[in-house]
Design a protein that fits this description.
Blueprint (H helix, E strand, L loop, with lengths): L1 H14 L11 H11 L2 H13 L8 H37 L5 E3 L2 H4 L13 E4 L5 H10 L3 E3 L7 E6 L3 E6 L5 H7 L11 E3 L2 E3 L2 H17 L5 H14 L5 H11 L2 H15 L13 H11 L9 H15 L4 H17 L3 H7 L1 H5 L4 H21 L1 H4 L10 H12 L4
Parallel strand pairs: 1-7, 2-5
Antiparallel strand pairs: 1-2, 3-4, 4-5, 6-7
Helix pairs in contact: 1-2, 1-3, 2-3, 8-9, 9-11, 11-12, 13-19
Length: 414
């Protein structure tokens, strides 16, 4: 019951959807659920509006005290995010001044679609730069006081951290290798030029819609789907409905087998957020599947991805969608990464020996260091790469893995 109340107040704070009724409203429990979902600022904005409209009453002293305390924290978090965004935007503009395209993903781009944009709080900022310009872009972050953790060979992003401005993930592609290949079949996701929005460069409208939707698919498959990701997709379509190239979207979603999931998200919005069907292009959905998404969103233990399920799902999808041997695919992928890790390339030296990334004059020292490591432990292992990296799919040991796999089969996502 409080779950439904929380979703209604979230929709009010996020999209301005009027509240009809709240059943046995429990402010403490609603905010507890909102904190678990990472949307408490938006829910609190909804509570504030509902109180002002006379839709709900905070009558006991404990509720009123909690409301005022959370309201202070909400204002502080909104102000902090605004300052961080301004500081990071300054760094991004410095990167662009060097002639490097720098595209902002999610975050402030999606927040602009919300009724209370300042209350859509992001844990980090994601930007996209061409891989050929990666080192130059990272240098700008270092010049602005960021600590840069250079990405691993298998990753698609670097993590840049500033005590003042927080975390920025610098992506060189939208998705990393296995995900791009197995989940998204190497489909070209960027076919439009970047566009300007509020002083930022971001993806084109249809590219942005596909990225937002497939980002939600990624969270769903990774056992980490939250109500904020669902709302991101719905508000994006509502805002750009007349500008999105739905013919292209349908072609991609049908090919990747995510069309039913996409339509079910809109059904979820109608059932649980109170959104109007007319705000979306025509669609149909199965209410029981929308309910399954609801249960999945609120299932306990969603802090971390389920590694077992991730690998089992990949194997199932690869064998059916790709009609291939996932064990062989992963063995080749691992072997390639081991070879890259053994290389003396400048990039690998910066990854393995951060002191060389901080001071390029120390690169020869890194080469000597790497030669010593290989001489000590590497040559024998390198000669046995085929055996040392051979991959096999884990067994489905948990009931949760089996149930989730069945759910994705029902959505025809395998």
């Amino acid at each position: 019951m409080q779950r439904e109340n929380m979703l209604k107040l979230f929709a009010l704070g996020a999209a301005g959807v009027p509240i009809d009724t709240l059943s046995d409203f429990d402010f403490h429990e609603v905010m507890h659920l909102a904190i678990e979902q990472g949307v408490w600022q938006l829910v609190l904005a909804g509570v504030k509006t509902a109180v002002q409209n006379g839709d709900i009453l905070l009558q006991n002293e404990e509720d009123i005290t909690l409301f005022h305390e959370l309201h202070k924290q909400m204002l502080a978090s909104c102000i902090k995010q605004d300052r961080q965004h301004a500081g990071i935007l300054n760094v991004i503009n410095q990167i662009r001044e060097k002639g490097i395209p720098c595209c902002v993903l999610k975050g402030a781009v999606l927040a602009a679609l919300y009724k209370n944009p300042a209350c859509r709080i992001s844990g980090d900022v994601d930007v996209l730069v061409p891989e050929k310009d990666e080192d130059r872009a990272l240098s700008v972050f270092r010049e602005n006081g960021f600590t840069v953790g250079v990405r691993a060979q298998s990753s698609n992003h670097d993590k840049c951290y500033s005590e003042e401005l927080g975390m920025v993930e610098v992506h060189v592609s939208l998705y990393y290798g296995i995900m791009q290949d197995v989940w998204f079949d190497n489909v070209e996701m960027m076919t439009e030029p970047f566009r300007e929005q509020d002083g930022m460069q971001t993806l084109g409208i249809t590219d942005g819609y596909l990225f937002t939707l497939l980002h939600t698919v990624k969270h769903f498959l990774s056992n980490r789907l939250w109500v904020k990701q669902i709302m991101d997709v719905l508000l994006y379509e509502m805002h750009y409905k007349d500008q999105i190239d739905f013919e292209r979207v349908d072609k991609v979603l049908t090919h990747l087998k995510y069309k039913e999931f996409s339509d079910t998200l809109k059904g979820f919005g109608v059932l649980y957020f109170g959104l109007n069907r007319e705000d979306f292009r025509p669609f149909s959905f199965d209410e029981s599947k929308a309910e399954r998404i609801l249960k999945d969103v609120f299932q306990p233990g969603k802090k971390k991805a389920d590694r077992e399920f991730f690998e089992v799902y990949n194997a199932c999808r690869y064998s059916t969608f790709k009609n291939g041997d996932f064990n062989r695919f992963m063995t080749d992928w691992r072997r390639d990464n081991v070879k890259k890790a053994m290389s003396f390339s400048r990039k690998n030296m910066y990854i393995r020996y951060p002191y060389a990334a901080k001071n390029h004059l120390l690169l020869p020292v890194a080469w000597i260091n790497h030669l010593y490591v290989i001489a000590k432990t590497g040559f024998k292992r390198f000669s046995l790469v085929k055996q040392s990296v051979k991959y096999s799919v884990p067994e489905m040991d948990t009931e949760q893995t089996k149930k989730r796999l069945e759910m994705f089969k029902d959505f025809d996502m395998i």
